[in-house]
Amino acid sequence: MSQVKFAIPKGSLEEATFKLLERSWTKVNRKNRTYRVFLDDPNIIVKMLRPQEIPTLVSEGLYDVGITGKDWVEETKADVEQILDLEYGKIRLVVALPEKYTYKNLDSMISDYAKKKKTLRISSEYLTTAAKFIRQCKSYQKYYGSKEPLIVTPWVRLGTNKNVQIHLSFGATEAKPPEDVDAIIDVTDTGTTLKQNKLKIVDEVLTSTAHLIVNKKSLKDSKKREKIFDIVTLLRGAVHGRKYLHIYLNVEEKNLKKLLSQMSSLKRPTISPLSEDGWYGVNTVIKKEEFHKLIPKLRKLAQGLVVHEPRQILELEEIKRDEEN
Asked: What is the distance, to the nearest Å, from the Cα of residue 197 to the centroid of all Cα atoms in its chain?
């Protein structure tokens, strides 16, 4: 069996990632002050890295699979397969301006600064994404055409349009306006930090969640592919497991048909006769969001409800089809 290298994120996605791993594998060990993580599968080699680095490292084949934000896949333009949305770590990348400014959006700000021949300075950690968003603004195209905004870092300057500049931020981006820059393009969850710094959101650039990404060559490697799909199966099962409940209940034969007609199921329920004549056990999986609607019906028609939250729900037949394609 070929070994697979797996990069997982350190930082804001770290805690949620470990919770997902613990639902996916029976053992997840991490030694203090190290970046190595050990699963109960010796053929999966796990290391913690910054999420910003993971797309490029996976794209270049230094790692076969990785977990990172979709925002960083787009920012780095990494040529990877985004194989699974892990549905956590949701953030928005937004344009924010000082509250005192009257601009409705970045487009109107670009227009006003261009008319006044003022240099517009924007701070962001997302240089590529910010430049792409700015170039798509109608006012930018009107006044600057196809010129690239000037990207400013301590090491290099890229682009030719000095009138619109994107300055690399190393953190605390929300603290920079209005003295250092005129606007920011930054991530937010609730927007609270921006409000505390007297900033207002005027545009949404993108939304992002954590994704499982795969190196395209590794996916074509017959030996690695098998292990990669083991990882996909387990992680997908853990993601689905958060959405469902496993329930078991007893129902009298006269109520069985009515109960089944009112109860949704992931698949068809398992129905087993009990030791007492005229009673059956019903075993099934339902969506969490439907549970509260089901309770009043169960109280009238059934007895002895037992509820479990599954660690995983593995769609093995779906993975099998994927492997055959």
From this structure: 27
Angle, nearest 10°, between helix axes 14-24 and 222-241?
A: 100
Q: Coil, strand, or helix at residue 246? A: strand
Nearest to 255 by CA among 301, 303, 305: 301
pLDDT digits (tens, 9 = 90+) for 214-232: 999 999 998 899 999 999 9
The helix (run of H) or strand (run of E) holding residue 134 is helix 127-136
Alpha-carbon span 60 to 195, nearest angstrom:
39
pLDDT tens per residue, range 165-195: 999 999 899 999 999 999 999 999 888 899 9
Domains defined for the chain, CATH in brackets:
4-87+210-241 (3.40.190.10), 92-208 (3.40.190.10), 244-317 (3.30.70.120)
The residue to which tokens 């409940």 are assigned: 245
pTM over 0.85: yes
Spatial contact of 96 and 157, defined as CB atoms under 8 Å apart: no
